[in-house]
Amino acid sequence: MTGEDPLMNETVTLKIPAKINLSLDITGKLPNGYHTLRSVFQTVGIFDTLTISKTAPDQPMMLTCDEPAVPCDARNLVWKAAVKLLGEDPCGIAMHLEKRIPSQAGMGGGSADCAAALLGIRKLLALPVTDAQLHETAGSLGADVPFFLRGGTVLAEGIGEKLTPLEPIPAYPLVIAKGAEGIPTPEAYRRLDALGKALPADTDSVLGQLQNGADALFSCCGNHFDAITDLPEVLRIRQVMREHGLKPVLSGSGAAVFAGCANPARAQTCADALKAAGIPFVTVCRTTAEGIRF
């Protein structure tokens, strides 16, 4: 016997999927500056991992990450989630984040990690927080965070907080690529506002094709931010995807670009060409009905 408190060794590990936007229509701008949207969110098989462990009750919280560029302090949404649940000076837990979802990609990595922290801390510490309360807390941390409490295929409206679960789609192959550069979300919205013209809406078309096969679905996907995203690497990614007969679509406000198809070999061939073109992040994965999992 070591005399250690057995609770000191309790740990939860969460597998955290990224998301893409099968559609993203910006429908207006509110007086407070927020934009309204209609979008079909879809979780995909690129995963961060968050491990949360109990420590001594009076030990200040620690957050570490295997990606040096990720801040491990109050700037991180994982930290902010802990503060929401445990107070301004959280103690008694240590968290380690393994990043695989690229940053500034429009794939919701920070929001997904935040949702995982809410779920993991509640479970590990057996907090008396209901699902409804957790959803409300998630919404206070970011518009995309509530989606990741559920995952799958979801219609998002309002500023992203109005979520309607949809029938899950099959596990379709995707190739996803991102260059080294990104566009901060506020800057992307500024560019879209300055565009000054109406853009075609894709969400209704996507909703109508969700269960009609990969080719029908991915041929009608679209994103308003595609109109203002002209980073050189994004242009190169689009070119390579089109050369392989695939339709490139930005995810979120960028700068990741995805294309889906029915044939995994076709997706892999496109991915190989993107790697040969020097694109730093390229992966082949599938859509998934799963959200965050313990």
Description:
- There is one protein chain.
- With 294 residues, the chain is of the alpha+beta class.
- The protein folds into two domains: 6-165, Ribosomal Protein S5, domain 2 (2-Layer Sandwich), CATH 3.30.230.10; 173-286, GHMP kinase, C-terminal domain (Alpha-Beta Plaits), CATH 3.30.70.890.
- Helices cover 31% and strands 27% of the residues.
- It has helices at residues 77-86, 109-124, 131-141, 145-148, 185-195, 203-209, 214-219, 232-243, 264-276, and strands spanning 11-29, 35-54, 62-65, 93-98, 153-157, 162-165, 173-178, 222-223, 249-250, 257-260, 281-286.
- Strands 1, 2, 3, 4, 5, 6 and 8 form a seven-stranded mixed beta sheet that branches. Strands 9-10-7-11 form a four-stranded antiparallel beta sheet.
- Strand 1 (11-29) and strand 2 (35-54) form a beta hairpin.
- Helix 1 packs parallel to helix 2.
- The relative contact order is 0.19.
- The model is unreliable at 1-8 (pLDDT under 50).
| Outline | globular
Report, as a whole number of angstroms, the end-to-end distance.
29 Å
**Strands, count:** 11
Order of helices and strands: EEEHEHHHEEEHHHEHEEHE
Number of separate structural domains: 2
The share of residues in extended strands comes to: 25-35%
Query: Can you identify the CATH class of the largest domain?
Result: Alpha Beta
Q: What's the pLDDT, averaged over the residues?
A: 95
Helix content: 25-40%
Major β-sheet profile: 7 strands, mixed
SS content category: alpha+beta
Q: What is the CATH third-level topology name of the largest domain?
A: Ribosomal Protein S5, domain 2
Count helical runs: 9
Estimated radius of gyration = 20 Å
Pick out the low-confidence regions: 1-8
CATH architecture of the largest domain: 2-Layer Sandwich
